[in-house]
Amino acid sequence: MECHAWRQGPVPVDVHQEWDALREDLSKPLVHLTHVAQGPWTKIWNSGPGKNVRIPYGLALDDTDPRAESAVEAADLHAGIQAAPTLARC
How far, in Å, CA of 5 to CA of 35, rounded? Predict the structure, then answer.
């Protein structure tokens, strides 16, 4: 999932439209979860200069988790596959 830093917090680009229907029920609990001091959104948003900047997946991982490095590698591999041009079919 790709997230960008917006004024209100991190926004998963693909699900932004679905959010409107859930906004009333989920906004407060999610704000408390996503606006953690020195969390991924806070680091990228940086009081505004990071507006709409992609939040790297690795920032959301716990550095002390022994699986973190593997998760970042898998996310990078996935991003590379997504960015690769589609092969022509015969």
Answer: 11
- The one-letter amino acid code at 88 reads A
Q: How far is CA 74 from CA 17, 31, 58, 80, 88, in A?
A: 27, 27, 10, 10, 25
- Quote the percentage of the chain above a pLDDT of 90: 0
Q: What's the pTM value of the predicted model, to 2 decimals?
A: 0.52
pLDDT at 51 (0 to 100): 87
List, in sequence order, every beta strand (DSSP E) within the chain: 3-6, 9-12, 53-55
Which helix H or strand E contains 78, and what residues bound it? helix 68-83
Cα 86–chain centre separation: 24
